[in-house]
Amino acid sequence: MTKPVNPSSLVMPNGTTRPQLRIVIVGHVDHGKSTLVGRLLHETGSLADGKLEMLKAASARRGMKFEWSFLLDALQTERDQGITIDTTQIRFRTQSRDVVLIDAPGHAEFLRNMITGASQADAAVLIIDALEGVRDQTRRHAYLLHLLGVKQVAVVVNKMDRVDFSEARFQAISDEISAHLIELGVTPAAIIPISARDGDGVAALTDRIRWYHGLTVVEALDAMTPAVALDELALRLPVQAIYKFDDRRIVAGRVETGHLAVGDDVVIMPAGKLARIRSMERWSATPLQGEHGAGRSVGLTLDRELFVERGDVIAHAGSVPSETRRLRARIFWLHEQPLKAGASILLRLGVREVRATVVAIEKAIDPGKLAHVETREIALNHVGEIDIALAQPVAADSYADNPRTGRLVIEVNGRIAGGGLVLAVDAGRAVPRDIVPVRSALRPEERAGRYHHDGAVVWFTGLPGSGKSTLAIALERRLFSIGGSPILLDGDTLRAGLNRDLGFSADDRRENIRRLAEVAGHLARNGHIAIVAAVSPSRGDRAEARRMVDSEFREIYVSTPADICEQRDPKGHYAKARAGALQDFTGVSNEYQAPDAVELTIDTSQIAIGDAVDGIEDMLRRSGVLRDGVADLATTG
Amino acid sequence: MTASHPQQDRHDVVSMDHLDQLEAQSIYILREAFARLKKLALLWSLGKDSNVMIWLARKAFFGRVPFPALHVDTGKKFAEMYAFRERYAKEWGLDLAIEYCPPIDSVDPTLPPAARSAARKTEGLKLALAKHGFDGLIAGIRRDEEATRAKERVFSPRGVEGGWDVRDQPPEFWDQFNASPPPGAHLRVHPILHWTEADIWAYTARENIPIIPLYLAKNGQRYRSLGDADITNPVASNASTIAEILVELDGSTVPERAGRALDHETEDAFERLRVAGYL
């Protein structure tokens, strides 16, 4: 099946090349990843001269039995502790192809290194200890392979010698892992019983596993294929840079998918500008001709002067990426601080860098656990789905449309902290284009001079029946009576008109809040005090409202206990919801997320409305919304 | 899937072979480094790998290398290497910066002799960093050369002292690189990390890139890897052309750095050098 070769020779002497396949070995710690790699190299005669002796000496020096893993665990600390810390790569050759083996660490602590290794692979071998069976990291690695887009997976059940080569034991593990993988949408290419230490099942089937009639590990690797042809997808050429080293203005980038040629009409996204490719420049020869496809690093000149910048995406007319400021993504998280709704992050979509806010977190789980318990934040080494609002529009694709451009990473303090796949772009809502906002001619000081206050948004949040509307109406009366310009925006009232197309799903609630914040922010910027009374149960949605309104936002949490709210039930909603006649009702079937930090908290079961409004007025005065002139007016008038 | 474009079916796509793919990936990395770092230099050791790297930079930037080529000079290189430097710095239009290494006394005395000699280069590198304030150094190391290099990142952060923290390398995937070194520290950028020794030779032949003649066999010996003259040994070989080198490599199981004394003194000598900031 294999022939001995120098591991470093990939290019044949005559200049031809053989297909190359990159395979990552993953699985739980101590299940034998590095041992399998060592055994594979040995069986294929790919070890460098003197390497075996060196490994024996290194093992003996530590008083250990011979360790195959020392071949890859090159770091002193790895050998001393007998663990793989960082991923590594090594090459060997089978009959049909050259293989780059990527050995990934199995410790949860080094998951970032496993991802670094696995992200480069065309296919994976998932290793499971026959004695220990499927463990946390087995499941976690399987889940991450699926997130990283590695769809070809062979499973090996290792250390069969430790279970007396029991067919029944093999079958039990085989059934469990198959079910798990199929749930993730992965069909295992093979499930192979082996002993990496002794060699059974690696390059040959032995008598000890005579009940097994499938592929050996080497045969399974030979049957895997390199990743899909990206040429066949729509053109995506993200712009890396614009170079003006001489009189040429060269747009440089790499074709991620599709292909292009001189003379093509292209669209530069997200701005949607049109141009034609004038030339494809190259050093040291004459400009390129012909169609150039995925993977090619190119330099274009265009037929007209356009403002093009790093992060723009060049596409063909008719198959352009979306222009969007909203994304939904499924991500894995590698930072010690959990990712929370409201977090401000730096996003990288290909070469585009953009500031963003995590609007909401859904389906956060630990993929290593069998029972998927959902959490509200995404912890280290966990996964989840997030909604992201971008500070500026970008060109984006979903992963389903484009596996290269439909993925993103998140950076925290200049270091990659997570990554994932774009599930949806824009959530179906059109982004305004060609709109030129007109600003009011009145200056803020003119308005403040009349109203004796600056513009603001006072946002009441709390359970249904907590007293938000009562407080809002009382505050409106108070501000009006002292000469101000309050405007009440009641959530239910707006739902009867402006928001009547929205229901109570998470997406619709988010859009409801966005519109409220948009209107309230507009009023505030024009000098009024917008008083919003809305349940607004999602902490992430409120964080987004605060971000939109900015420094004029004042949040008041009406914290009246739930049992009292339900007793009051002014609109009869609790009773209906309890009877099952009202779906998604916050306080009964939908959870309310209490705020962490607000400008003011009021429990209307503890304080009279008049006193509460005094407290709000005081807060507005202290935080610089109400000016002294208003107080004078109140006492003298 | 997004609908494919009608223009796409006009011609066949020009196919890319293995070397084209390696080249395109390296160009991508070099352009990312140039876009994201403020003050870059390319470490030019004059060897086959760094000559390929300069070639790739000229491809990436359409004929010019838009940052200095830094030669950290131990003063103990082969005469052929100095001749090569003078000639091609001019021919290739390089902005050549030379940094002379400090004397051997300034180097960690607990290192074995050859490693200690090599560690002078690390000291020279530190001097250059301090003098020029580079935040990125482009280096021509490859994964297949040596086991600790196989664990490297493409963008590899270094500490303020220039050290490599192998226990805490950041994640790197999907060609997304960590390019924000903390103040005072720098990044190593490795644009040919994914190449092999045979790839380097095949590409050198295809592109007709000049090499130092010491790589080709004379009197039954040639150098596979070039370092300081006093700690680098030739290997037995009759390969007097690049084509013959490729044939020789195809049947060989002798590691590339077999002639580099510093790799073989103790098990961890090379790792200690690298942790301290060696290439």
Distance between the termini of chain A: 99 Å
Cα-based radius of gyration of chain B, to the nearest Å:
19 Å
The overall average pLDDT of chain A, rounded, is 87
Number of helices of chain B: 7
Please list the strands of the largest sheet of chain B in the order they lie side by side.
4-3-2-5-7-6
Described by strand count, sense and barrel closure, the largest sheet of chain A is: 6 strands, mixed
Weakly predicted, low-confidence segments of chain B: 1-10
Strand order of the largest sheet of chain A: 2-3-1-4-5-6
The structural class of chain A is: alpha/beta
What form of chain A results from the Cα inertia axes?
Answer: globular
The portion of residues assigned to helices of chain B is: 25-40%
Q: Main beta sheet of chain B: strand number and arrangement?
A: 6 strands, mixed
What does this structure look like?
- The complex is a heterodimer of chains A (637) and B (279).
- With 637 residues, chain A is α/β, with parallel strands linked by helices.
- The longest helix of chain A is centred in the C-terminal third of the chain and has 20 residues.
- In chain A, helix 9 packs across helix 15.
- Chain A has a six-stranded mixed sheet with strand order 2-3-1-4-5-6, with helices on both faces. Chain A has a six-stranded antiparallel beta barrel with strand order 7-8-12-10-9-13. Chain A has a six-stranded antiparallel barrel with strand order 14-17-16-15-18-19.
- Chain B is of the alpha/beta class.
- In chain B, helix 1 crosses helix 2 and helix 5 runs antiparallel to helix 6.
- Chain B is globular, with a radius of gyration of 19 Å.
- At the A-B interface, strand 2, helix 4, strand 7, strand 8 and strand 11 of A face strand 1, helix 1, helix 2, helix 5 and helix 6 of B.
- Strand 11 of chain A pairs parallel with strand 1 of chain B.
